[in-house]
Amino acid sequence: MDEKKETSRVEAFSDGVFAIAITLLILDVTSAFSDASKLQLFDLLRQQWTVLLAFLLSFATIGIMWLNHHRLFTLIVRADHNLLVLNLLLLLAATVVPFPTALLGRYGVDVANNEANFKQATILYNGVFLFVALGYHLLWLYATYKGRLLSPNVNMEAVRRIDRQYLLGPLFYTIAFALAFVNPWISLAVNTLLAIFFLLPGIALSTSQKPE
Amino acid sequence: MDEKKETSRVEAFSDGVFAIAITLLILDVTSAFSDASKLQLFDLLRQQWTVLLAFLLSFATIGIMWLNHHRLFTLIVRADHNLLVLNLLLLLAATVVPFPTALLGRYGVDVANNEANFKQATILYNGVFLFVALGYHLLWLYATYKGRLLSPNVNMEAVRRIDRQYLLGPLFYTIAFALAFVNPWISLAVNTLLAIFFLLPGIALSTSQKPE
Amino acid sequence: MDEKKETSRVEAFSDGVFAIAITLLILDVTSAFSDASKLQLFDLLRQQWTVLLAFLLSFATIGIMWLNHHRLFTLIVRADHNLLVLNLLLLLAATVVPFPTALLGRYGVDVANNEANFKQATILYNGVFLFVALGYHLLWLYATYKGRLLSPNVNMEAVRRIDRQYLLGPLFYTIAFALAFVNPWISLAVNTLLAIFFLLPGIALSTSQKPE
Amino acid sequence: MDEKKETSRVEAFSDGVFAIAITLLILDVTSAFSDASKLQLFDLLRQQWTVLLAFLLSFATIGIMWLNHHRLFTLIVRADHNLLVLNLLLLLAATVVPFPTALLGRYGVDVANNEANFKQATILYNGVFLFVALGYHLLWLYATYKGRLLSPNVNMEAVRRIDRQYLLGPLFYTIAFALAFVNPWISLAVNTLLAIFFLLPGIALSTSQKPE
Questions:
Q1: Chains A, B: CB contacts under 8 A, how many?
Q2: What are phi and psi of C116, to 5 degrees?
Q3: Hey, is the C-beta of C206 within 8 angstroms of any chain B C-beta?
Q4: Helix pair A3-32, B49-75: axis angle to 10 deg
Q5: Distance from CA of C24 to the nearest CA of D (A)
Q6: Is the ipTM, as predicted for this complex, more than 0.85?
């Protein structure tokens, strides 16, 4: 039983799913511009700005999901059935992202006519993100319980740092989710700040930067 | 001739196909919501529930296909032309899944007007699943015949356990397929139970959990 | 400079492209059934049989392309700029396949009204296949010229066998291409026979089966 | 901390994104031919030639992006958080390519009626390419600053050669971008020449060809 190989195949499959989900996002941008030949392109880009915002936000979010997955699996070296099923749950969340992204973009363009739909799309969008945050939390709790699936000589400092960060993720996304019921624009602003926060160099808790 | 590398490329290609097939499923969910701006989003989600059910069921099924493939290829270490062709047959089944999934979802929404179409979609859907189960059976029989493509120091206990499980798979899916001719709802309920059954921790026969 | 790693990344990228091209084929099958709710599903499947035939034929062909690629890269161990560019040419052919496949399926359904279009689609379809066969020929000639990119201890018998087979491929596909100008149905029958021929166990010239 | 494995996963994810972006390009070609059954196929191909040109140009460009990525990551052996984020920026550019490609093709067919749109699409198209060129420049500057992420025994000659080439890329693409404001056809001609230039064997600066 070659354990190294096992997690590497989980990573390969997950990489594939993240890569596809992140690349499919552009399809809805293209289709949002398909039946609109009356306007000039640059005016169209301005009119459809929520489509572009939703695209960028979802791209950043799936990108962060991948960064996170990458980081966890530098620490997780074993895979059992439950880990694979929990990982499938995460991938489910990743593949779903293009759906509320498309709705958010579309309903955002139409917000003047139907504000309720835009709000509901924001709730759905943040619901998926909250599901992602909880999914990572669960997978991480399972893998680290009694050091179950970690390398025996794992950097415990790195584990603790992720423990702390994984309390913040679900908290932040619960707030963004709750705000979506109040005001979709504020909720999206929080989403944007969270994406920037997780991509910024200073705050990043990448295990790979501290090899000691 | 680096045999290790050979099966690893079969796995990489298969991972790619599974990853894409599982991610494409969301496209039909998105398109099912494309021309329906009259209703509120949450009402739409309720109206299109068969689209969401078909999505989840197919996601779980392709996920289980990947789990199975992963498990088999921890035991199969050699690849010959016939294995590659049998593997292509399995991948054919995986890539086809989004098609009956889309039909099932769509005809499910329209079931009040056209029950025959919904039944036929369920038959097709279960036919594909049965094809998957038989495909795995065939590939496994071929690979294990006289231990042909297994590692010389393979865990024979793990092989037996898969042998036993692979008698159950085709049997269960034959039942679900037969039930689709009688009542599509019962057939889908059996599909759901089978997906849960194969994902549950207790019943899982993962070879990786018993390294001795 | 880790040469092993270099060809392995060429293979990974190519695997990705083949995996996606082969999986996208189903999208056009799904869309061929999208606006046809008047007929019963099983009648529709019968009516759209050229869509299903084109899907299966293209799936088999991309599958064979992957098998071939896999085989070549068990012998090719070095990569230079020209090989990467020639490989891109092959991948171009692979990504193009879904386009004439969609046309062939659609025009096939409509053949009674517009036979010229069906013939032109068959010509295009076979033109792509001929391009594939010539592409492999070229890549192989380049890689084997003075053993340039082969392993120093390569099995020369395996190289010769591929040499011989690679004279046949372009020949067969030139015939199928020429026949498309005469009669599209005969041309498609030849395509089908070629696919079966390359997938059959007896005729397969897999290098991996004869390790001595 | 297995550093080799870390960059290899960045490469795998990037390979996935490049592979998908390059393969999705054909979808817009197919859809450009979907509602045009009145003309004969060969006449259609002639009429939609800008769709085919945009497809080929974008295929070549994403192919060159991959070649570049491949080349850089034979020299970069370490990954930190910032590199992963800069790499995500590049992948963002790669996934966006199919969008201006679709616009360029479509507006090109319609150029006689709406020249302004075609010009704006060319500006957008070249803007994305310029973004790609600057993205590579940035990633390379970051990785090579004080040899930060390079192998300790890296071939400094290869690093210098890329340094020089990476001054040319942004320069050339700035010119093509500026020309798009003047005349879209000239800009596209420059794009075509650049693609050929980067694919030609003589000019290629592949590090793998000079192993000493």
A1: 104
A2: -60, -40
A3: yes
A4: 150
A5: 9
A6: yes
